[in-house]
Design goal:
rod-shaped, about 90 residues, mainly alpha
Length: about 90
């Protein structure tokens, strides 16, 4: 077998591997495009929504604490008034 015949035989054996590699490259390119065009924009939307929601809750946490204290006071006053009304009745 001559060197050229050997090289040709080796080349023919490598053809399926080259085809597989090309197929993998094509699939990777499709995955990259899907990530760029579909996944990343959706992630950005989710991040934006999460961030804005977090900011709203973060800013209103002090109000929430004040409301809790107000409700606690209201409960105490209502209980006291109920007791007084029951005694008067």
């Amino acid at each position: 077998m001559t060197n050229n015949e050997m090289l040709l035989a080796i080349s023919e054996m490598l053809d399926p591997i080259r085809n597989d590699i090309q197929e993998i490259k094509n699939r990777v390119k499709k995955i990259e495009l899907i990530q760029e065009n579909k996944v990343l924009p959706r992630l950005n939307t989710i991040e934006s929504c999460y961030t804005s929601t977090f900011d709203r809750y973060k800013d209103s946490i002090e109000d929430y604490e004040a409301i809790k204290q107000d409700i606690s006071i209201i409960k105490k006053v209502v209980t006291e008034h109920s007791e007084k009304l029951q005694k008067m009745a």
